[in-house]
Amino acid sequence: MILCSGQEKPCHTCKSCLEFEGKSHPDFMLIEPEDGKTIKIETMRYLQEKIAEKPITSEKKVYIISECECMTREASNSLLKTLEEPPEYAVLILITSNESKLLTTIKSRCTKIYFRPIPEDKLIEYLKQNQIDEKMTENMIKQCEGSIGRALKIVEEKEKYLQIEELIQSLPKKDITQIWKQAEVLYQAKEDIISLLEYMIIVIYQLLKKQNKMCYINSIQIIEQTKQRFLQNANYDMTIDYLLLKLWEEFR
What we know:
Elements: H1 15-21, E1 28-31, H2 41-51, E2 61-65, H3 73-84, E3 90-94, H4 104-107, H5 120-129, H6 138-143, H7 148-156, H8 158-170, H9 176-182, H10 184-187, H11 193-210, H12 214-231, H13 236-251
Parallel strand pairs: 1-2, 2-3
Helix pairs in contact: 2-3, 8-11, 11-12, 12-13
């Protein structure tokens, strides 16, 4: 809409709209973590070079920095210079799901727009339209928390989530050494551990709704405490060991 030169925006027929829909718009740039983990200072320097050039097709230039919490400190400080004095034709959109990881100086220079979760029925409708609803369990849909992006990521990593469900089902049936072996998915998930712990809570909460047992309430509390330990940089493997032992004791 910002880039469109038609009267009703977006018109889908002007040169700007056609270029945007064809992913060849010279006045638009989407920046994402290069290796899936970080946005480096070199990327910000390139943005600064391009933003200094005047628009070619539209009256505005639009830059979207997705997952901007992945910027390195050097990249964040470099972006500050642009945010302080952006050209009048430039629109910078920073997207994040974790505002706490952004520098205060960056947040103070931005207008915050909060997005509410998509209602679950709308999310399911989207999944059906794209023929991926059958790939997700009810628990996985709840894990999405109204986010299509999160839903697509869960579909890609479905096997991890199925292993979590199987692990929880095994807790009352197997001894602790078998549980530790079965929980390889947790030991190897350093980057996604908080998401997997949150999924464990969802699975156990659904069990709690069916059977009002104290062990489920205690288990949720144990997982929440584990999340806090990770946020405090506790030893990773030892924390998983302790988590599984305490859950096993509750379920037994």
